Amino acid sequence: METVPTIGHKRSRSAADSESNLQEATSAARETTRNAPRVLLVHLSALLSCNDAMIRVIPAILADILPANDIPSFTDEDALRAFSKSPILQHILQELGVRPLSYDESVRLQQVYWRIFYGLGAPLITLAPGAGELLDATKRHGQIALAVVAHNTAEAAKVLADAGVGHLVDTILPALPAETYASENPDPRAFWSHWGQFVMPWFTAYCDKASGETDQKPGADAAGAAANGSTTTPMTDTPIPSDNTNNDASDEAGSRAEARNLVPERALLVSSVLADLSAAKASSGIQTCWFRRIDAADPLVTGSASGSFDLVIGGLDELRAHLFGEVDGRGGDHSSSGPATRCKEEEEREKNQKKEEEDVEDVREQEKDEMMGDC
Fold first, then answer.
1. Are 364 and 22 spatial neighbours (Cβ–Cβ below 8 Å)?
2. pLDDT confidence of 132, banded at 50, 70, 90?
3. Looking at the structure, do residues 38 and 133 belong to the same domain, yes or no?
4. 124, 140, 174: which is the final residue of a domain?
């Protein structure tokens, strides 16, 4: 029951009013965060058109390792649906109704996979429609750092270079370990270990270089390492020291350090494979975008699976429009801010976010004071 105020006491607001104000302040802070991704993590599968390749490769693999009467019947749509659920070949085969493989068959699978993939699949893989435009827009606008995520970083570097878009990618990072996909409830430690080992070192070095206004493209060292066969590609360059001879410079360095304190909520993860997104989403508050390659009426699209993601798109042009307001080619604001300007903008967004969080605390303190005054 609400306390009746005595003379000289302010009447306390209702619990509903208090909760409403607190929710509004919290919501504003979260909205500021979620509408301004600082990092775009795009799985290689989302940048490539792989459907024709998968339709050819999977039946060829099965024909090579299994007796004909052990190969289940499935359609092209079934194969694409299975690929939309998991990037792991064994999971795809299981989804298609393939019986468990014997030891010899598993060994044979490992032996023939790459031969069949490069012989039949690779020639059919092309850059996805809108992929080049998305990468170009990200580079032009200069507000979001871009990393491609791949299970084989060396192969990814080659594919992107051959497609003529390698220079538009800031770095190539390894994907989560394959074992992360084996469980419906992935261990959150796998995500956070990956985040700390790869994403944060790269982004920290990225901002250090940007603030130093270096000429080298962020991620060039990582892409080069990947091209040489390395599967671990975070940037580890020594940060460029800043001149802290006055307080203003020290404040700027401190703000820059704060801006580099990236959290998953400020990253947008894009993939055409559900498991890529689910494995990360279940462990953090990372923003997710599913680029569906199957019909919009498919249960995977209309069901609860896609409802757990922040965005579901049918083409990369939709993502470009969402991030940059560009529709049917270039549109919206095309002013290209340089790397130094980009980090200053990030610092400003961090300051605004911090102010929103302080507003939340102010609301809490005000409510506490009023409650004490009514006692």
1. yes
2. very high
3. yes
4. 124
Instruction: Tell whether 57 and 194 lie within a shared domain.
Output: no
Average pLDDT, stretch 247-269? 65
Print the domain residue range for 100. Answer: 51-124
Selected residue with higher pLDDT from 346 and 338: 346
How far is the CA of 321 from the CAs of 93, 258, 317, in angstroms?
A: 35, 29, 6
Long-range contacts of 14-20 (CB under 8 A, 24+ apart): 18/367
pLDDT in tens, 308-324: 788 889 999 999 999 99
CATH number of the domain to which 197 belongs: 3.40.50.1000
Q: In this structure, what are the phi and psi dihedrals at residue 96, rounded to the nearest 5 degrees?
A: -85, 0
How far is the C-alpha of 162 from the C-alpha of 369, rounded, in Å?
64
pLDDT tens track for 101-124: 999 999 999 999 999 999 999 999
Distance CA 375, CA 286 (A): 42
Cα torsion 150, 155, 159, 164 to 10°: value is 90
219: left (phi over 0), alpha (psi -120 to 50) or beta: left
Taking 80 as the threshold, does the pLDDT of residue 226 lie above it? no
The Cα–Cα gap between 18 and 163 comes to 56
Q: Is 316 domain-assigned?
A: yes
